[in-house]
Hints:
Elements: H1 3-13, H2 18-22, H3 28-35, H4 43-52, H5 57-79, H6 83-94, H7 97-101, H8 106-119, H9 123-136, H10 142-158, H11 162-173, H12 184-197, H13 201-217, H14 221-237, H15 241-257, H16 261-277, H17 281-292, H18 300-315, H19 321-334, H20 337-350, H21 356-370, H22 374-390, H23 394-404
Helix pairs in contact: 1-3, 5-6, 5-8, 8-9, 8-10, 9-10, 10-11, 11-12, 12-13, 12-14, 13-14, 14-15, 14-16, 15-16, 16-17, 16-18, 17-18, 18-19, 18-20, 19-20, 20-21, 21-22, 22-23
Amino acid sequence: MNIGSVIKYYRTKYQLTQAQLADGICSISHLSKIESNTYVPHESTIEALMAKMGVQWEKEMHRHKRLERQIGEFIDCSLFYDLEHMRKQYKQLEKENDYIQSSELVNQYELYKFRFYIYENDHVQAEQQKELIDRMKGSFTAPEKWLHQFFLSIYYTMLNKTEKALGFLEQLEQGIQSIPQKFEGEYYYQKARLLILFDRFELSAYYAEMAVQYYQLHHNYIRLLHAQLLLAINYTRRNLLVQASGLYEVLKRNAHLMGQKDLYYQTLYNLAELFKQKKDYDQAFELLAELKVSLPDDSYIYKAVLISMIEATVEMNQKDESLLRELKLLTRETEDEYFLIYENYFEKRMFSQPDLIAYCEEKMFPFFRKNGYIKEGKKVATELKIFYEQKKDWEKANFYRSYEERKAGEV
Length: 411
């Protein structure tokens, strides 16, 4: 506990000068050294300074221990993905914000507020917190510097700046021995999550399995489900469909039993994608239709489900214009370019407009390629490859084949 910071906090709070507080107790220079934490005073001096401000030192020590415990719980909630309890802790800690700012607890508190805003997907608060932490980082300890860089990676993932996010994590790997032990699982999980976005499946599977082992060992069951979902997605992408199906069934049951609705919905969505990969479009559509009625229509995953349902109807040579109308309505409200791209694509494809290929080549493929949507880019590349093979335009066909077959840096 930084005694001097607490004394300075109360002196400032009660609008006393150093001369007024020091009078009759110690010299002004002595008090200045105490407040800067360069000198630890005798207990009697502490008590005298506190008593002059009407503060009971023993109660102050209990307050500090309570806040230290609460911040520890705030951090544990983050690590164990207990978001409901984390929100409650956040509200309680914010009431003590001014006091925490005067203590040595401030760095970890502000770092985990940053993580909290990312969990809440609050872009505005996260950006403001990032700017605050950038001003504070000169006082960080080595583990706090590691956390800062790690949280920046997660922050840029939230913004869909995946290359930048992966760059931060790869820099951390150079000093992997400095990772605090209780953060190892989070590091492995985030690394696996980013690598799968770049189709680097072998390395992603390695880190996902490391995360699974860590979470099992430390009885972190919710994060264990998240890591297993990454593995299931990884298996699907590598066409290991039997392994993926078995893991999805385990995830469906356990996510339901643990009341993890979002994770349960994500599992159903990815299981539907597996059915589509098996060309079992009827079963995929049934699962997506069941999922659609359970989701709020303003959520990201709801729009993703709409896109997946339309894809399934197209593959079954069916037309469901009501789904496209709903997608158009939702994209007009949000103006999300990703969904606008798909809306225009389906409209052109559904109604057999002659400019579909031009749209894929000039708008859709460059957008996916520029913004790091590798899976989506490969799908469009496959369509364009087939089209140009039929046209016997081998130069363009080979270009799109090379993108379709790319390994995104996988070794």
